[in-house]
Amino acid sequence: MKVKQKVGAKLVVLVCIGMYWDLMLYMPPSLRERRRYLLFEVMGEREMDKRDLLKEIWDSIYSLYGDVGASEIKLRLIEYHNREEGKSGVGILKCAHDKVEEVRASLACVHSVNGARVGIRVIKISGTIKGATRLPRKVTAQYSVDLNSKL
Fold first, then answer.
1. What is the pTM of this model?
2. Domain total for the chain?
3. What's the CATH code of the domain at 44?
4. Which one of 7, 19, 52, 120 is most buried, by most CB atoms within 10 A?
5. Domain membership of residue 18 as a residue range
6. Domain check: are 9 and 66 in the same one?
7. Contact indicator for 22, 12 with CB cutoff of 8 Å
8. Would you write out the chain's pLDDT as a tens digit for each of its 151 residues?
């Protein structure tokens, strides 16, 4: 059972789940925060875990921009997959739309993950996940991971 009520510019939806009522806020697209998706490639000496990679990215962001800057970036790792040969991987990061250059700078400052040397290269920036995974066939042929099936 759903009960909808408009309060200002927000739509409040009450949802009944069993015996409990839950409050859900619906934000129209004009009021949502804009974001960007960065498709990136990691090239390294050996295979790495996505948690270790994300920890190094966060350490780089904190060292460059501090706590306030890191909170404004609103970074999230959407997907990360290692390639078949295991020494590199492809992933998608989500960040605030006005902090893309800061994220790119912090990715450039990551040089090692768990003692293994790495390099991170941004392949594409997009406003949607679908746009980030959609690549021309020439570029897709470089990757052994099929981005459209994995992401």
1. 0.75
2. 2
3. 3.30.70.3250
4. 120
5. 1-32
6. no
7. no
8. 455 555 555 555 555 555 554 555 567 778 778 999 999 999 998 888 999 999 999 999 999 999 999 999 999 999 998 887 778 889 999 999 999 999 999 999 999 999 999 999 999 999 998 888 887 655 555 554 455 555 4
